[in-house]
Prior knowledge:
Chain A is built from 8 helices and 3 strands. By secondary structure, chain A is mostly helical.
Amino acid sequence: MYNITLEKWQGPMDLLLQLIEQEELDISEVSLAQVCDQYLKYLAQVEELNPAEVADWLVVAAKLLLIKSRLLLPGLALGGEEEAKELQEQLKLFKAYLEAGQKIDKLWRQGQIEYIREKSIILEELKRFSPPPSGLDISILEQTFRKILAILEPIIKLPQITLQKAISLKEKIEHLRNFIKDHAGLTWQHLKTKARDKTEMIVSFLALLELVKQKEVSVEQNGLFEEISISRSDSIHQNIRTLDH
Amino acid sequence: MEVNNKLIAKLEVILFAAGKPVGFKRLVELCEVKSGEVEEGLKQLKSRYETTGSGLVVLIHDREAVLATAPEQANLVRQFLKKEELGELTRPQLEALSVVAYRGPLTKPELEQIRGVNCALILRNLQIRGLVETEESSSTMPKYKVTMDFIRYLGLKDIKELPKYEELIQHANLERILAETSS
Amino acid sequence: MEVNNKLIAKLEVILFAAGKPVGFKRLVELCEVKSGEVEEGLKQLKSRYETTGSGLVVLIHDREAVLATAPEQANLVRQFLKKEELGELTRPQLEALSVVAYRGPLTKPELEQIRGVNCALILRNLQIRGLVETEESSSTMPKYKVTMDFIRYLGLKDIKELPKYEELIQHANLERILAETSS
Lengths: 245, 183, 183
């Protein structure tokens, strides 16, 4: 276990890259699957530390889970090839820019600034009060200032907006949990088709795994590539397989 | 006298950054050389500008030196300043001016926090035009406000006569965004 | 291209008088020549400053030119103008800055796609520090790019001097072409 605190990580990509590098792995689908659990462990702490960014972290978590599950349980037919490829590409690109950023920092610290003259040179004859040639009046100033005040609105609300996004993702998970619990005898196929988009499908899967882990539901699959059925743990106790490991 | 090129470059840099006459004494201090070397260096800098056909000249007078534009270029400079510095206000300039008018006196970081962009060159321009000036203040950070000339130009006696002045400067958004500068 | 010395002198005079970046467009207007001639003239002015061992440099970025002090003179200018050193860049700022430098102009969602996190506040801070600006464009989504100040603070003469510039920019171009052909 690495003794690292989360304040150090500037975002999910940063953490992911560090986890892979600490394992001395290359960026690949297999290595992404391998660091999935560690990533989730950190995610649990991130929620406490910086709620504003939870959404960003969750999206990556969902992708990692999908990648891991895909490798462990090919029979699920989850899809996810695209996500795996995308995440690898994103990570490689991120790494390249991270390294470039370190070099920029080095240049910055050298302090070899190319200075411009601070004050303008103005001819004596032009040193006089010079309003814009086409004029300016108080109503223009008022309108302009009002517009500026209005532009500030979304900036002030920014932290709250991200928070809202995060909460809605968490709510979605909660909602799905309840849905799964209430509909014992569901199949994964059913859940999958209910999802409106890929993200929602990933989130469904995330919720499902969470429930399995907490032993609130069980999943059953009679054979490789066959339908997976989901049921409440209190109704069926046979043939439990957790998808967690 | 043998003067090394490094000294000439240093003199050039100081004169450029100053934008106004600099005394020999100051040049001696900054370049850490003898007074004679500064004089010789300036002479060589002057002749370099003359021989390369530059539009700039080094003027030496009364133990002071200045880097300036050649007299025959005065018209070009005038034209440039009129267009670039004294022409119509750009959108960002107008926006900064309206903030200084309503919310001034305020510091550059406060203005930038409200505008969300760097305002160094904008403030420089508004000052050249005589629309904005800095306020004498005891704190280290200068505060910007509109000039009396501009207030009169708007037909006002006091900047507080701007439309909806009280209402707009008490806008909650302003306070909240400025609270972030101080934090 | 044959460019006469008079044009070079004019360009030098304007850049000197401006003391800030001047757009090619304005230079074309004031010198009454074609855009290609301005570009060639600037190139020659730039190389003249380099070969005469001057303490000044001509920087060109994003169709703007500025006359500034050479990077190796930074300490002297700081001493003379009593300038403070720049504050540090945080890690997230560096990350975002490098993406914008190599890949800009790009939109906020494009930046977020690479960094994996929301970048609204970071972009705002970088704009306030004057390192990033938005490109004037008719489209609704603003595009971000690095500024001349960014070039100056790093002591570069051209953005192409950034480490691994060609390699990283080629990568970005390739992706762009792929994205365009597939859509």
